[in-house]
Amino acid sequence: YAQSNQSREDIRDQGAEAFNAIDLLKTIPPASTSVTYPSSALGNAFKLAAQLAAGNVGTHAIWIKTSGFDTHSQQVNTHADLWTDVSDSLSAFDKDISNRNVADRVMVMGWSEFGRRVQENASLGTDHGKAGTVFLMGQQVKGGTFYGDVPDLGNLDQGDLRTEIDFRAIYSTIISDWFGQDPLPVLNASYANLGFVEKPSSVLKLRSRR
Questions:
Q1: How far, in Å, CA of 193 to CA of 80, rounded?
Q2: Cα(81)–Cα(42) distance, rounded to whole angstroms?
Q3: Which end of the chain has less neighbouring CB within 10 Å, N or C?
Q4: What is the pLDDT of residues 15-45, one digit of tens each?
Q5: By C-alpha distance, which of 103, 105, 97, 109 is closest to 50?
Q6: Cα–Cα distance between 186 and 197 in angstroms, integer?
Q7: Cα separation, 74 vs 130, whole angstroms
Q8: Residue 144: left if φ>0, alpha if ψ -120 to 50, beta else—which one?
Q9: Angle between helices 41-55 and 75-99 (to 10 degrees)
Q10: CB of 94 within 8 A of CB of 137?
């Protein structure tokens, strides 16, 4: 009986969240008519993200997923299509938020849960690797450079790229310099500040919105 009541409460909570999301979407600005996004799921997700950013509804972080990069075979053509989608989606998103005058308080962080090995396998693909790459995009990002050394293909870690930066240092920098918060309670340890954020005051204004 207790479990049945809990199940009903869980369903009610999920229903309430769904209706709240619908109400929220009614308040945000419409999709851009001057920027053309890819018709892919990724393109549509970035289109909605631009609307949410422009709506200033108190959203602090938007998580967008894309898949297909786990290419153990036939990697070249697959990655060409996937990265074209990523590039076109990001380009449209950047133009959209610039047109809406919110680009100064939006930062994009792109990462993968695992990297790829350097050497091609027998199926014209690559297998899981240790190190990966994180990219950051935004007006408040000190970009145009590598943070960490340029990958050295002649100095590998058992066939993998060597890790140059602890990924928690990236999160620590964002929590501290972008969100203006103390990263210690989140990460439970101190990590280097990589210095890639300009520390925008507009983010603090957005963070204080209720």
A1: 33
A2: 13
A3: C
A4: 767 766 666 667 789 999 999 999 999 999 9
A5: 97
A6: 19
A7: 21
A8: left
A9: 20
A10: yes
Q: What is the pLDDT of residues 122-139, one digit of tens each?
A: 999 999 998 988 999 999
The reply to whether the predicted model has a pTM over 0.70 is: yes
Q: Which of 21, 171, 57 is nearest to 107 (CA)?
A: 171
> Is the CB of residue 207 less than 8 Å from the CB of residue 199?
no
Q: β-pairing, 128-129 with 115-116?
A: antiparallel
Torsions phi, psi for 141 (to 5 deg): -95, 130
* DSSP per-residue codes, 117-135: -SS--TTSS--EES----E
* Per-residue exposure over 111-130, b if at least 16 CB sit within 10 Å of its own CB, e if not: eeeebbbeeeeeeebbeebb
Alpha helices in the chain (DSSP H): 2-27, 41-55, 75-99, 167-173, 184-187, 201-207
